[in-house]
Design goal:
The chain is mainly α. It has helices spanning about 5-30, 40-60, 60-75, 80-105, 110-115, 120-145, 150-175, 180-200, 215-245, 250-265, 270-285, 290-315, 320-325, 335-360, 365-390, 390-410, 420-445, 450-475, 480-490, 495-505. The protein contains 20 helices and no strands.
């Protein structure tokens, strides 16, 4: 099954790229047509926070446990126990989901008043609750698909949800249904994804009536749940505190758009961490720490070569990027976008080490990291937001992520030998740095002469050529890098990869 990892990484990469493209198009359309105002987007961020909170409470990080323990049992050739684990976790999550849905529905008026300042938004709260419950089901299915290395099917489920949900959402908003149309679209997409996921998982694991004790599973997942609680704080504290301290939903909406823009960069590392997680778990179950070390080092190489240039490039041209995607009204989010782009390099590295810690069962260590990060976040936001507003919020994220990465490396070293590809790190950084003066010159030269669209496209082309040339000059890429790529992509693309290989090496 591990032979599926290179191909699975590419499949998930392409799916995530399509996912963020579709999500980006959604925000581009609703912002440029003003069918959702900056205030509406600010309110949507609050509803998203509500959904994220409920998902956290009702899943208890059990989907991650499903992937870990199911893949371990399959690695030990025990499919019946794997099926039993899946059944127990699914039953637990769905029971919690129905309980919270019922309770929150009864309290929808109070929730509306608290979050949106009025009890007139009960319908939005109810729609959010329905969507959230359905999304939990999708998460359980995807965890199963991940555990049995069906990355292509997992990618299809995700792409189905995103495509259907955003297509219907943007159509309904253009028909002046506002936020209600957005949420109806989310629900429709979730239903379509569940139907496909059910088909993909049918018959993949044997039926079983053997009950698996929940206690050992909760022992793994509860520390991770508390970790996710701190992650919720890390992901949403700046938005909530920014809203509370400024009372300006327009500013919150601009910052939320900026965060969503940066989150699109997760397509650079999520495919890798997603596909190596079950493999790392299997290696841990088989007690092969040296192989975990090798997988982490190899993953760090490819993460470095793709995240560093992309993030540095976006930071350099952030004003043009925002104008290109969302219009000139969002240009004042450039400073936060620059800071958050640099922080994303750190986020990618942290995600790799956190994945390794999770795979070897050290969720308590991740909890420690995130508690420290959450306390740091709230403290810094309280100090910086009143003075620097959105820039202060972005600087807080950068500082917090740097602290988290330092702690993750330190704690992982206590469990396994940690290696990163130092050659890739310095060569990629040097090549990326070489693009900065060229990008800034291009920005200054073309910004007053060409529309934002043409300027941005020119900057992307210039950055790609400069980075590629620098990598070639540094002899950074090796033949083995392209061999892995050939394994992942269809054979019909081999001749094109060979051409690129000749140019790059």
């Amino acid at each position: 099954m591990q032979t599926n990892i290179p191909r699975g990484t590419v499949q998930i990469t392409l799916t995530n790229a399509a996912q963020y493209l579709i999500m980006g198009l959604f925000y581009i359309i609703v912002t440029k047509t003003n069918t959702l105002t900056q205030q509406d987007i600010g309110a949507l961020s609050v509803l998203s926070f509500l959904s994220s909170t409920i998902i956290l409470i009702t899943t208890l990080a059990l989907p991650t446990a499903l992937t870990k323990f199911t893949s371990e049992k399959i690695g030990k050739n025990d499919p019946k126990e794997a099926a039993s684990i899946r059944k127990t976790i699914t039953k637990t999550v769905m029971t919690l989901s129905l309980i919270v849905f019922t309770a929150a529905s009864l309290l929808s008026s109070q929730i509306s008043q608290t979050l949106l300042g009025s009890s007139n938004y009960i319908d939005l709260i109810i729609l959010t609750l329905i969507y959230t419950t359905l999304y939990n089901i999708i998460t359980l299915y995807n965890s199963t698909l991940q555990a049995i290395y069906l990355f292509g099917e997992m990618a299809t489920v995700t792409l189905t949800y995103i495509t259907v949900s955003r297509a219907i959402a943007v159509t309904l908003t253009l028909l002046n249904m506002g936020l209600k149309g957005v949420l109806v679209g989310y629900i429709a997409g979730a239903v379509a994804a569940i139907a496909i996921a059910a088909k993909f998982t049918r018959g993949k694991l044997p039926k079983t009536n053997h009950p698996t004790p929940l206690k050992p599973i909760l022992k793994f997942s509860l520390p991770l749940f508390i970790t996710n609680l701190t992650i919720l704080t890390l992901n949403w504290a700046d938005i909530i505190i920014l809203s509370l301290l400024t009372q300006d939903y327009s500013q919150t909406g601009i910052y939320y758009i900026t965060l969503n823009s940066v989150s699109a960069l997760s397509i650079l590392w999520i495919p890798i961490t997603t596909t190596i997680f079950p493999a790392l778990s299997e290696k841990h179950g088989l007690k092969r720490p040296e192989e975990i070390t090798d997988m982490v080092k190899t993953s760090s190489r490819y993460l470095t070569y793709i995240t560093v240039p992309t993030c540095i490039g976006l930071a350099a041209v952030s004003p043009t990027a925002l104008t290109f995607f969302y219009g000139p009204n969002y240009r004042n989010g450039a400073a936060p976008l620059t800071i958050l782009s640099i922080a994303t390099i750190i986020v990618a590295a942290y995600s790799l080490f956190a994945t390794a810690l999770t795979a070897i069962g050290k969720t308590n260590q991740i909890l420690k990291i995130n508690i420290i990060a959450a306390i740091t976040t709230i403290t810094l936001l309280t100090l910086t937001v009143p003075i620097l507003k959105t820039t202060g919020a972005a600087l807080t994220r950068l500082t917090t992520q740097l602290i988290a990465l330092t702690l993750a490396i330190h704690l992982l070293k206590k469990e396994i030998k940690v290696k990163i590809d130092k050659e890739a790190l310095w060569k990629s950084t040097l090549a990326s740095t070489a693009t900065i003066p060229i990008l800034l010159t291009t920005e200054k030269t073309l910004n007053t002469k060409l529309p934002a669209t043409q300027t941005f496209i020119a900057e992307v082309v210039v950055a790609a050529i400069t980075y590629t040339a620098a990598l070639r000059a540094l002899k950074a890429l090796k033949h083995r890098d392209f061999q892995l790529l050939k394994q992942a992509l269809p054979k019909t693309l081999t001749k094109y990869i060979n051409i690129i290989e000749k140019i790059a090496t």
